[in-house]
Amino acid sequence: MLTVISLGAGVQSSTMALMAAHGEITPMPDCAIFADTQAEPTRVYEWLSWLETQLPFPVHKVTKGSLRESILESTTANEDGSFVGRFAGSPFYTTSELGQREGMLRRQCTNEYKIQPINKKVRDLVGLKPRQRAPKDEAGKVKILAEQWIGISWDEMQRMKEPREAWQRHRWPLIEEHMTRLQCLEWLQDHGYNQLPSKSACTFCPYHDNATWREMKSSDPESWEDACMVDEAVREGVRGTSQQLYIHRTLTPLRDADLADPAEGQATFSFMDECDGMCGV
After folding, report:
1. pTM, entire model
2. Residues 19-23: contacts with CB within 8 Å, 24+ apart?
3. Which domains does the chain have, with CATH numbers?
């Protein structure tokens, strides 16, 4: 059976991978898989490159393409007013006709750009061809071909979900160890890892809080400019909606948003709605 780590390159999944490398979680994984949206902050890619050097098993990088480019294409209109690209389903804030906050668009980006590419790679690794069904045992039950470790911590256990594929099973080692996100950070420091990972999420993720935006603006201007560019591009709507869209919940252009007030942070991340715990870990 294949043992694989779903590696988001954030605090929790990185700690889980390093704990496995130290032999504190067994058995040793066969590999880790990182699904690249091609829109992560610079620090995430730098951390991932370093992390690969610390692990005794390979890290496979997979991608469906650029989430950023998909969003930008969906903002381009034809002469008849229809949109060119297909919208990737990022949860931007929407406005009503009166300019008030109405809600958020449906989030499909995690499924399309994280879950599906990882599952495709796992299928390849266990030898399942496209649309091929998994074999069954003598009792007629589908055989478990892969165990996927997911870095959900004890304080976020509500994100735990069973796999969609009958031939897979999920394991949550940090839940087994009763480790919170804070304890993951403490484990890294206790083991001499002074360089710590940042949260893994796209630069333009609407779930960033003001603290995250401030840090990005001050320490990673390239990622900040990328987020502002996407925010400006979606202002007049994307394929499927003509509503004005914003990245910041105050319905203020990101460049002009007041990032000083923590009370005006983003919407609380809905872990119960988040797809299989693949983002942020």
Report:
1. 0.88
2. 19/173, 19/187, 20/55, 20/57, 20/149, 20/173, 21/54, 21/55, 21/56, 21/57, 22/191
3. 2-65+108-200 (3.40.50.620), 67-106+202-264 (no CATH)
